[in-house]
Task: structure prediction
Amino acid sequence: MAIRDTARALREGRTSSRALVEVCLEQIRTWQPATNAFIHLDADAARRDADAADAALRQGHDRGLLHGIPVSLKDLLDQAGLVTTAGSRSMTAVAAADAPAVAHLRAQGAVFVGRTNLHEFAMGTTSEDSGFGPVRHPRDGGRSAGGSSGGAAAAVATGMCHVAIGSDTGGSIRIPSAACGLVGLKPAWGEVSLTGVVPLSPTVDCVGPLATCVDDAWVALQGLKTAGPLPGTPEAHPIRGLRIGVLRDFGWRAVDPGIGARVAQALDRLVAAGASCEDVPLASAPLIVPTYVTIIISEALDFHAPRLPTLGPDYTPAVRGRLESAARPSAADLAAAHEARARIEADVRSLLERVDVLALPGSAITPPWLGQAQVHWPEGDELTRAAMLRLTQPFNLSRSPALVMPVGEVDGGWSASLQLVGRETASLVAVARGVEATLATGSA
Result:
């Protein structure tokens, strides 16, 4: 059930937090061996916290919509008393306190069922280079569940938790959400505290939710932001009159034909329901990859360069190799990259002055095989990592809120996802709610 329905059932006595946790633990027993979604599980703590949540409700202490809801945390966010591994054997320190985002969820009554696996230090899109073994796709253990928040996606997709918290520096919430048929919401940069979160690139890192519906993603995001009462979900934006800017040249340049067709069909349905679609250009597209690489490598080295001389052997070979072979950008190159990032932000902002939301596929490819190095296109080969990042990383650089949602399946049963980009998170979620309802029912 959606979080709001589950919350109602809790308050009406039709279920309990303990019962919800037991279902999740049963799913974990079933799916953890196949997916390796979790690095750390503490069933006793989850049961204890669920019992406390149930007792609090009986005593009239209701913390809100997340009270008693089973949640997983990407093992990148500090949780008091546990090691924050960031998917690396090199990380062994026990967190002294919750990260503020985790503390907010705890204050909302969320019950933490475990800490999910990820691509080591969030430096990859496939979740296969982890010190704790690769995350495997629930539908096919030979394929990636996406990354870097692959464990989070696998956990939600299999019911091992109700909602998962991930992070997104170039698509690490949206890529696995697209791979696993989920809603993934990257908020605007700065919206959720990054204190107590192992950094990849602090000027673009974001923390946000992976969920099964837009409303759950909104509720979880608000829970990350405040210990106080949660704001209501924005009312669904009417589809009639909605102005959609379609990033056709950028978003469909090299895309799995089935995904491209499914997303185009979804946009056609929105037009039939009264929306208007206008092709718009992403003029700053040539700046995206060099800008992203310069900023991410520079800021990643800020964290890792002091650690590698002594702790490098405890990194996975692939991630260690990327870091050790990376040349630190000069101060002038980094300054130029930040200027280019601001130009990309201005470009996206300018487009969103013309339309209500931007639209493009959420992923260019279906889940790749673990170990797959390249994607083959008619015009040439592309590194798998680059193919997975290409459609999501612009909106980390623009600092825009962005959301992916499933819009059908392609051959083989893999999900196709629509990505929406907005001016700010509340209006984006309002549009996404309207789109979700329209595509589900065929009416505006």
